[in-house]
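Retro notes (design track)

What went well: tokenization of the new backbones is finally stable.
What didn't: we kept losing track of which sequence belonged to which structure.
Fix going forward: every design gets posted as structure first, then sequence, in one message. First example under the new rule, 422 residues:
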């Protein structure tokens, strides 16, 4: 096992070499530098063998040749001045984790801060504060459940907005559920989820939403620890940034019937995710209603210890990794191959074909026939010279194909990152 003192020594050496590069100190930014110094000052006791605490610091250098996702042969105009299309971003993250069990109670937590510094477009600089805490509780031999609270902050994609203005989304989620075990295989339960999505600039206020959902479930666990969960879910959502009137769409009602699975088909094959049917109704404007098959299923196949392949198929409303608006229907297929070259080197790739349908836009803020089609390809090489250090080098290419309602664009990028785990 690599000692913490060795990790700190490696970090200091890397920092000295990085600082010697032309303009490196200027690119890093004061906040990123302060976070790096904070990580280096952590006492070695946090890395003790078997300790439930953990600390991770990472720095990533990202280059993007079309930051604002603009059509070919166009350049952004900011404050009356034509600017370049590309930029370099320094992303510095510091996170701490906690995982401890007290009898039948388990507490898991993560607290992180991420600083994003843009070399050219510094009006986009922001600091994301992310956290998650979960209490996995148990009472007697038959009652169990979870209580979760989380917050995540992220920059809204420019591909969805057609502007150069910064828009940071803050997403908060609180959830609780309780289950009663009927026998070693079956359990029944109920759950509640509250979600709140907000922005820090007024132009996106119409897309802010608050949702409360309740669900009833039946849970089955097989002798091989595979699980199936049957869920009936009802949700009520509202858009607080919209003015109320008899014809405005300030809320919705949604019902879902779902099957959630985590099933080991064989020793080398696993199927996970959910599939079901969704009904969403917008009062007063029935033409915006939606009903249809929804879900996300992933098949992970590992024919050997060195080669793996994951295939994901999904059709979702408002998938958070795609777009913050919860009325957009996303259909996508992704293929994720991986290759363990050696005990220290791994290669990972991803190809995704994605389609977004804005027909459910309750605000008519985009063309009703807008139907985006995007293809994204990425590859990364990961090197772990010692247990506590991970270095990654990768590239990504993304293209949206033009339609009558939305222009196309092409974007390429590359990244180099270092992560230290204490």
């Amino acid at each position: 096992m690599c000692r913490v003192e060795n990790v700190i020594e490696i970090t200091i050496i890397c920092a000295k070499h990085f600082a010697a590069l032309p303009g490196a100190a200027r690119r890093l930014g004061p906040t990123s530098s302060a976070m790096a110094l904070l990580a280096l000052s952590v006492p070695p006791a946090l890395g003790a063998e078997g300790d439930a605490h953990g600390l991770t610091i990472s720095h990533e250098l990202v280059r993007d040749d079309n930051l604002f996702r603009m059509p070919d042969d166009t350049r952004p105009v900011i404050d009356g001045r034509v600017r370049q299309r590309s930029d370099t971003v320094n992303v510095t993250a510091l996170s701490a984790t906690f995982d401890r069990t007290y009898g039948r109670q388990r507490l898991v937590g993560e607290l992180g801060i991420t600083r994003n510094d843009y070399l050219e477009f510094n009006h986009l600089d922001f600091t994301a504060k992310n956290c998650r805490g979960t209490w996995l509780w148990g009472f007697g031999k038959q009652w169990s459940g979870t209580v979760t609270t989380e917050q995540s902050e992220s920059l809204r994609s420019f591909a969805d907005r057609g502007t150069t203005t910064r828009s940071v989304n803050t997403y908060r989620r609180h959830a609780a559920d309780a289950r009663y075990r009927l026998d070693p295989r079956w359990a029944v339960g109920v759950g509640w989820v509250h979600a709140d999505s907000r922005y820090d600039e007024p132009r996106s206020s119409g897309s802010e939403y608050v949702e409360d959902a309740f669900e009833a479930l039946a849970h089955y666990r097989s002798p091989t620890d595979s699980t199936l969960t049957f869920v009936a879910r009802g949700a009520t959502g509202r858009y607080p940034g919209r003015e109320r009137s008899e014809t405005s769409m300030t809320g919705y009602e949604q019902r879902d019937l779902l099957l959630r699975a985590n099933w080991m088909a064989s020793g080398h094959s696993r199927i996970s995710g959910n599939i079901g049917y969704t009904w969403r109704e917008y009062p007063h404007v029935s033409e915006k209603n939606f009903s249809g098959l929804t879900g996300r299923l992933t098949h992970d196949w590992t024919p050997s210890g060195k080669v793996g392949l994951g295939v994901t198929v999904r059709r979702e409303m408002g998938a958070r990794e795609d777009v913050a608006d919860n009325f957009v229907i996303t259909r996508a297929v992704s293929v994720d191959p991986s290759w363990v070259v050696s005990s220290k080197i791994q290669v990972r790739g991803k190809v995704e074909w994605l389609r977004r349908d804005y027909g459910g836009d309750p605000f008519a803020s985009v063309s009703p026939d807008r139907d985006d089609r995007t293809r994204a390809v990425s590859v990364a090489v990961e090197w772990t010279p010692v247990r506590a250090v991970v270095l990654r080098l990768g590239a990504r290419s993304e293209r949206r194909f033009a339609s009558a309602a939305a222009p196309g664009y092409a974007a390429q990028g590359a990244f180099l990152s270092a992560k230290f785990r204490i």
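Added context from the reviewer: Helices lie at 4-19, 24-28, 30-40.
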